[in-house]
Design a protein that fits this description.
The structure holds two protein chains of two kinds.
Chain A: H1 2-39, H2 46-63, H3 68-90, H4 100-121, E1 143-144, E2 152-153, H5 154-176, H6 179-188, H7 190-195, H8 200-222, H9 231-247, H10 253-280, H11 285-306, H12 310-313, H13 339-359, H14 362-387, H15 395-412, H16 417-438, H17 445-460, E3 482-483, E4 486-487, H18 491-514, H19 516-526, H20 528-533, H21 538-564, H22 569-572, H23 575-588, H24 593-611, H25 614-619, H26 635-650, H27 654-683
Antiparallel strand pairs in A: 1-2, 3-4
Helix pairs in contact in A: 1-5, 1-8, 1-9, 1-10, 2-3, 2-4, 2-8, 2-9, 3-8, 4-23, 4-26, 5-8, 6-8, 9-10, 9-11, 10-11, 11-17, 13-18, 14-18, 14-21, 14-23, 14-24, 15-16, 15-21, 16-21, 18-19, 18-21, 19-21, 23-24, 23-26
Chain B: E1 3-14, E2 17-28, E3 32-36, H1 43-51, E4 58-63, E5 66-67, H2 73-79, E6 81-83, H3 96-106, H4 112-119, H5 125-137, H6 153-165, E7 171-175, H7 183-200, E8 203-207, H8 211-217, E9 220-225, E10 228-234, H9 235-240, H10 242-249
Parallel strand pairs in B: 3-8, 3-9, 6-7, 7-8
Antiparallel strand pairs in B: 1-2, 1-4, 4-5, 9-10
The chains are: A mainly alpha, B alpha/beta.
Chain lengths: ~675, ~260
């Protein structure tokens, strides 16, 4: 009897404990749904917007000495809506009719760009040891215990109450004013709305300002839950919120609220009761550590895979879309740019490798080797996004599988590391194929979210398993391979090996894209319904693409760690970084293998060459001549590439193809001019 | 004459609204059948149900006597249903030849990887031959290497037909082939359709607004309105029927 009473008490305690984080998840989920509902944009940058407001709040409150209330007004009521307005005006307004995947990539770009930009612009550098605080004094320490079961802190109470008030206000706005209807109408068809005399631009700007206000509010309210000022925390909260929002198919505000609250309570319940069961059932012990961090990702994945009708919920089509010119697809032909041009590129690349091989010191050789290995990983993005038109955010996990395979088989079991690379590739291919089979009913945004969930699940649970990442996280010494008499302990030799592997992979990608599966994928990208109606199975082609992509990523990951001599999971393969990979490849051109290779070179060398000002050292002959404002903060690469995605959305073919197209246009124009001049000359009149 | 395609009591609802109400129709081998009815009658919905783009709630779809109601789209296509689209659906950034090659290959899925390695991804001889035949049949020879973006609407429609012919269909569903074309183009299209149908002998189910095209092309028609089959029979009789007038002019439904 006593036992039963204590269980009930603990149950209520857990439920109450889950409410404050639950309301915060709910707040983010609602803001997220709001952006989606009112602008049709799946806004990954929502977490970044929240982070921006939080940073401004702390800057104003702590460093400028404004006090918390004026700081909160500035960051939540003024700055946050302005930021939303700015994003709409500068970016998303121009992408209203762009394919959903393009806007998704842009929002990913902003996700990496905004936090760095805000931090640099505000010169925000919190004192070490300081942690975020809430809007009320002594928020963490003063507690109230209204039910006699669980004492709420002041911060938690404020967050819960403000969140509930904000949600009610939003519900009233949608229920009692025409605002909600107008917003929905603009998402459905901006032109149709304008024909009814409503300015789509103004409604859309208003929607962004409103949802950004929610981002700011959530950002400031969540802050005390964290111990550090990290944009990653906000990204993680975003993923949890997406899980909450997915419960309501991304469009239902009440369901998003319920989903967030429910998720908070479930997490609290599991963390209360699971430890007890493990006392009784010893076999649960290893599960216990992994269940908690993985709940949101498992929920997210489960919702996406198992909730029926999710596919239909998405993608309304504009009845007036027919007046648009046909829009560019994300995926497209991997163009053959003519043999001369290809040969020129190959010669340039080989020349660069030859210079590095003969001239460079060890640091540079290793750096270039890294770039080459990264190029192999990036080719996996060429396949999955450039050819299959799917956005995968778990390429980091696939690459890590390759790295861990090299560690487990090569270092721990003493197998040849090159054989281990191939086995790792096969394992990753199998995992990728299984993942893609699970998701075969889904396309577009849902694949992106599900792969993100998988990436986080891998990160939170699998990496720590001793048979996967395990000990390699602490220490690893990956040996270099030996083939016959060639010892690749020599860095230059290993560089050559990496270049050969890259060349083989690039050739494979090229053949794959021109082969049967590549043709099928291109047809599916052009018109899925037409492709299916001539007998093409979408899931088979996509599973093949995923498998090849997983293989390439793992081979690249394996080569990377062999080159570095150790597995640095945290600095090489975490989900947030993998997201940045996608952005870089997309900026340079996701359709041709060359785009991936150039992107890899930039990704690895950008910091050393440009941000540290090394390039000026070369031009001006001497390290001493590097201008004094170098080195720039490494954050600049996030900003530049993040903003680079905006240009991608307008020119999906990428920087390289765009410049090639410009070149072609110029030469055609010249040829045309020449014809005019010639014919004018023939006629004997002055041109 | 054997039945190629049949729907048996097919019903379809969109969130409670009845789009198709127990529609039963048959298309015999080599026959040219029309499906007419005003906007919103459910013609394209029926096409989508036959092809499997939309699931059928009640009833069955049969192809060559086999129940295909639960098969996915690409299986139905491989079993012999071809289709064109009202708003043309071509594969962007591809040439005319690419369209035909992939349609041919999707129906013969054996040893694809081996072939790819042997040919380095180029079309195989039998694919070149088959696509040349179809292009000639449709009068598109010379356009094989054109990117589809350069085709006119009429050529695009012909390419859709060509693409579906590459799958060797038993029955082709034509969804408003005249839409967007002027009278002259429509007449030319009708002529071509008659020719290729005679040559290849597939059955056709034609959805069309252009009365002239329906009258000249089909021998038998079904009249559909608000999801109900109102009448069927030889095309001239259906055209002249009181139901036809009622459906198009909107007077009270004639019993």
């Amino acid at each position: 009897m006593i036992l039963a009473v204590s269980v009930v008490t603990d149950f209520f305690q857990a439920v109450l404990q889950g409410v404050p984080p639950g309301t915060v998840y709910a707040l983010v989920a609602i803001g997220f749904v709001l952006t989606y509902k009112t602008s049709g944009v799946f806004n990954f940058a929502f977490g970044a917007q929240a982070f921006a407001s939080m940073v401004l709040f702390h800057k104003a409150a702590d460093e400028w000495g404004w006090g918390t209330v004026p700081a909160a007004i500035l960051s939540v009521l003024i700055f946050a809506p302005l930021l939303g307005f700015l994003l709409e005006w500068a970016v998303f307004r121009h992408l209203r009719t762009a394919p959903p995947l393009s806007t998704l990539v842009v929002s990913l770009g902003l996700t990496v760009a905004i936090p760095s930009l805000v931090t640099i612009l505000l010169d925000f550098s919190p004192k070490s040891g300081s942690s975020p605080h809430g809007v009320v004094p002594d928020g963490r320490t003063v507690r109230y215990d209204p039910f006699g079961v669980y004492p709420f802190s002041r911060d938690e109470l404020v967050a819960t109450i403000v969140a509930i008030v904000a949600v009610l206000g939003l519900a009233a706005l949608f229920r009692f004013t025409p605002v909600g209807l107008m917003m929905k109408a603009v998402v459905e068809s901006p032109r149709m709305t304008e024909l009814n005399g409503i300015s789509a631009d103004r409604v859309s700007a208003g929607a962004w300002a409103l949802s950004s206000f929610f981002a700011g509010l959530a950002g400031v309210l969540i802050a005390p839950r964290f111990t550090t000022f990290s944009a990653n925390e906000y990204f993680n909260i975003m993923v949890i919120a997406i899980a909450a929002a997915a419960v309501g198919k991304l469009v239902s505000l009440p369901w998003a609220f319920g989903g967030g609250l429910g998720l908070g309570v479930v997490i609290a319940l599991v963390s209360t009761f699971l430890p007890r069961w493990t006392d009784e059932f010893a076999w649960l012990k290893p599960v216990q550590e992994n269940v908690l961090p993985s709940i949101p990702f498992v929920v997210l994945f489960g919702v996406i895979v198992f909730v029926p009708g999710l596919r239909k919920a998405i993608g309304s089509s504009d009845p007036l879309a027919g007046v648009d010119p046909p829009r560019q697809n994300v995926a497209s032909v991997i163009t053959s740019a003519g043999w001369m041009f290809l040969a020129l590129k190959a010669v340039l690349l080989l020349g660069a490798v030859a210079v590095v091989y003969t001239q460079a010191d060890r640091t540079w050789t290793l750096l270039v080797t890294q770039a080459v290995a990264m190029g192999i990983i990036f080719l996996s993005i060429t396949i999955i996004t450039g050819l299959a038109g799917q956005i995968s955010l778990c390429q980091g996990a696939f690459a890590a599988i390759g790295a861990f395979a090299v560690y487990q088989l090569g270092e721990v079991r003493g197998m040849s590391v090159l054989v281990a690379v191939v086995i790792g590739g096969a394992i990753a291919a199998a995992v990728a194929a299984a993942l893609s089979l699970t998701l075969r009913q889904l396309t577009g945004i849902w694949v992106a979210i599900a792969t993100l969930a998988f990436a986080f699940f891998f990160d939170a649970v699998l990496v720590k398993q001793s048979w996967i990442g395990g000990d390699s996280l602490a220490r690893s010494r990956i040996p270099r391979p030996v083939i016959g008499t060639i010892d690749f302990q020599d860095d230059s030799n290993f560089l050559l090996l990496a270049v050969i592997v890259l060349a083989v992979c690039a050739l494979g990608v090229y053949l794959f894209s021109r082969g049967t599966t590549g043709r099928k994928l291109r047809a599916l990208g052009g018109s899925e319904i037409a492709a299916r109606s001539v007998g093409i199975s979408p899931s088979r082609a996509r599973v093949a693409a995923f498998a090849l992509s997983g293989f390439l990523a793992a081979v690249g990951g394996g080569m990377l760690v062999i080159g570095q001599g150790s597995v640095n999971y945290g600095t090489s393969f975490v989900p947030f970084l993998a997201l940045f990979w996608l952005i870089v490849v997309v900026t340079f051109g996701v359709r041709q293998p060359s785009g991936a290779i150039v992107a890899a070179a930039f990704f690895i060398l950008f910091e050393s060459v440009f941000l540290k000002g090394e390039i000026f050292g070369w031009i001006l002959r001497g390290e001493d001549n590097i201008p004094s404002f170098f080195p720039l903060a490494p954050d600049w690469r996030y900003i530049l590439f993040g903003l680079g995605t905006i240009q991608y959305a307008r020119h999906p073919e990428g920087v390289l193809a765009m410049s090639a197209a410009k070149r072609r246009a110029r030469s055609e124009r010249r040829a045309a001019d020449k014809v005019v001049v010639d014919s004018a000359a023939e006629l004997g009149t002055p041109a | 004459m054997s039945t190629v395609l049949a729907t048996r009591g097919v019903s379809k609802y969109f969130s409670g609204i009845m789009a198709l109400d127990r529609v039963t129709l048959e298309v015999n081998a080599g026959e040219r059948v029309g499906l007419i009815g005003p906007n919103g009658a459910g013609k394209t919905t029926l096409f989508n149900c036959i092809l499997g783009v939309l699931p059928v709630e009640v009833g069955e779809v049969e192809l060559n006597g086999e129940d295909i109601t639960s098969l996915p789209v690409h299986h139905r296509a491989r079993k012999g249903i071809g289709r064109t689209f009202q708003q043309i659906e071509l594969f962007a950034d591809s040439t005319v030849r690419d369209h035909l090659v992939i349609a041919y290959r999707a129906n013969r899925p054996r040893w694809a990887v081996v072939h790819d390695l042997l040919t380095l991804g180029r079309p195989r001889p039998e694919e070149m031959e088959a696509s040349d035949d179809v292009l000639e049949l449709l009068g598109l020879q010379g356009l094989a290497d054109e990117p589809v973006e350069r085709l006119s609407l009429g050529q695009g429609r012909l390419l859709e037909v060509a693409r579906t012919l590459m799958t060797n269909p038993d029955v082709v569903l034509l969804d408003e082939p005249s839409s967007g074309l002027d009278r002259r183009e429509t007449a030319a299209l009708a002529e071509t359709l008659v020719e290729i149908q005679a040559e290849r002998g597939f059955a056709v189910l034609l959805v069309e607004h252009d009365i002239e095209l329906v009258s000249s092309f089909t021998t038998r028609s079904y009249l559909l309105d608000f999801g109900h089959l109102l009448t069927s029979g030889p095309t001239e009789e259906v055209m002249a029927s009181p139901e036809m007038r009622a459906a198009y002019l909107g007077t009270a439904v004639v019993a």
